[in-house]
Design a protein that fits this description.
The structure holds two protein chains of two kinds.
Chain A (H helix, E strand, L loop, with lengths): L2 E4 H11 L4 E4 L7 H9 L6 E4 L3 H13 L4 E5 L1 H6 L1 H9 L4 E7 L15 H6 L9 E3 L4 H18 L2 E7 H5 L1 E4 L26 E2 L6 H21 L3 E4 L6 E4 L2 H16 L4 E6 L1 E3 L3 H6 L6 E6 L5 H9 L5 E5 L8 H12 L4
Parallel strand pairs in A: 2-3, 2-4, 4-5, 5-7, 6-7, 11-12, 11-14, 14-15
Antiparallel strand pairs in A: 1-8, 6-13, 10-12
Chain B lengths: L23 H14 L6 E5 L14 E4 L5 H11 L4 E7 H7 L1 H10 L4 E6 L2 E2 L5 E2 L18 H4 L5 H5 L5 E8 L3 H19 L4 E7 L3 H4 L3 H12 L6 E4 L10
Parallel strand pairs in B: 1-2, 1-3, 3-4, 4-8, 7-8
Antiparallel strand pairs in B: 5-6, 7-9
Classes of the chains: A alpha/beta, B alpha/beta.
The complex binds thiamine diphosphate and iron/sulfur cluster.
Chain lengths: ~350, ~250
Amino acid sequence: MALLMKGNEAIAEAAIQAGCRLFYGYPITPSTEIPEYMAKKMKAVGGTYLQAESEIAAIYMVYGAGAVGERVMTGTSSPGFSLMQEGLSFLFAAEIPCVIVDVMRGGPGLGGLGPTQADYFQLTKGGGHGDYHAIVLAPFSVQEMVDLTKEAFDLADYYRNLVIIAADGILGQMMEPVEFPPVAGRKLEPKTWAASGAEGRPKNNVLSYYLTPELGEAENLRWGEKMSRIKETEQRFVEYEMEDADYAFVAFGTSSRITETAVDMLREEGIKVGLYRPVTLWPFPEKGLTARLNQIKGWMSIELSAGQMVDDVKLVVNGKAPVGFYGRQGGMTPEPEEVAAAFKAQLLGGE
Amino acid sequence: MKAIFTKTAGLSDRPFHYCPGCTHGIIHRLIGELLEEMNLIEHTIGVAPVGCSGFCENYFTCDMIGAAHGRAVAVATGAKRARPDRFIFTYQGDGDGASIGLAETMSAAARGEKITSIFVNNCIYGMTGGQMAPTSLVGQKTSTSPYGRDAATMGYPLDLPKVLTQIEGAVYVASVSVDSPQAIKDAKKVLRKAFQVQLDGLGYSFVSILSTCPTNWGVNPVEALEWLQTKMKPHFALGELKVPATEGGSEA
Ligand SMILES: Cc1ncc(C[n+]2csc(CCOP(=O)(O)OP(=O)(O)O)c2C)c(N)n1
Ligand code: SF4
């Protein structure tokens, strides 16, 4: 049976269904429905919602709960996400699984409450210190928010890595019909590494430091291998009208919904264009894009930012075709007509 | 032959990395003994700070989590809420608990988190080589107050346990030292009570322990004890500053 739900609430419900029983957070628009939903629902399932004193505290509470081996989540929006960055670096180094939701809003600074995708660099390149990556999942509908949230917990446990759900103000706030089908889930190892009390076993330490540069390098190489494994196996994307396309847009989340309409409009004019939609922002789905390189005459990244993902598109296209960009900022979203016009101006020479 | 003194099962065989005359080791020993005596080793999750004691997970034989600088109390909160059946303590320096992590300490106290913080006050940043701490005394020379802490521009030392007594959720607050055999015995008694407060589910328990840092104070180990006794003690409230209501108190 389909339910009509807000994106933020759907994420929260999916987390509970995925076995998350701990939520630590600090309210911030446009993500506040996540803590509110958790505050309401956790009690009934014997879980805990705790309002932290700040996002810094929230992310380290996540660190503590993850370190003892429990499924845990926090949700925030851009300024709060910025505050968490040191914690993300520590979570990575200590290999503590957890799920973090960033419902992006306008920036820089306090910015505005409207939707953006301007945290892309921070999400995918590592906003904290050191060589690390989170697995970053970018839903484009409320249903996908459910499906990816459930999967996020499995991915986090499987790789012992932090997973971030990257949404934005529109996705968080909009209502769509959703279903919560049961999922089989991955086969997961017991968390024998967790610091959960050394009953009947040798003690465990969950740490993020190393004492010598030699060890430091070895640890970084080991993490690097894990990153390579994730890159190899977890790239995800969805293609729309790509089969016979001459040109392709690249867009995720809210901007991909707008771009889909632009694709339909351009196709009505007889222009063969498609949409390549990354579902994992990290790892960036370069395989699927590479497979289309010989086919596509020009690419165009559509983002709610000054142009961030476009850098990754250019890296993959590597000069084999022109790469255009169009974006709106500060909480504004483009109309499909604008997208189509920008495409014509940049890739069809103003046709 | 009857052994009259043995190593505690609460501590490992790893030799301490602390400087000669540093009292971090004595404090470790007290905690290790209590974990053993109270039968807590297998039920405890300790949280290590960043600071000189940031490697204490090598010494305690319970499970340990290493926090970021200042975040031990938040980590402990997250762990305790996840595993309310576990005994959870933080071990922190004064910079960790009273400067960068002050908000975490105060907020956990306000929420009455059922955890125990052991706060080791040596009036200086030991780990990073002797910079001014939130607890440094007025006039105290450190590498970042080379002319002495000037109250007009650098303010005054923060007596954190005294402040915590004003917070309802902090149900047991004590401030002790380990500068003499008697003081060590008293410190152990206080720590035992703080542990018991958590086991009884009463709220946040906090024990401040005045500690030496001969290396960064620029004195020898004997002089360090004198420095602690004559310079530090007059500036910090000492004793059991707040006990649970069931013990006839709740007032500072
Ligand atoms: C975010 C961050 N800021 C600064 C530091 C550097 N740092 C490490 S320990 C420390 C102070 C330690 O002093 P204290 O907490 O009093 O413990 P002590 O070493 O004296 O036992 C500082 C400033 C750090 N590791 N992380
Ligand atoms: S620097 Fe100071 S606090 Fe650190 S181990 Fe040495 S004496 Fe102890």
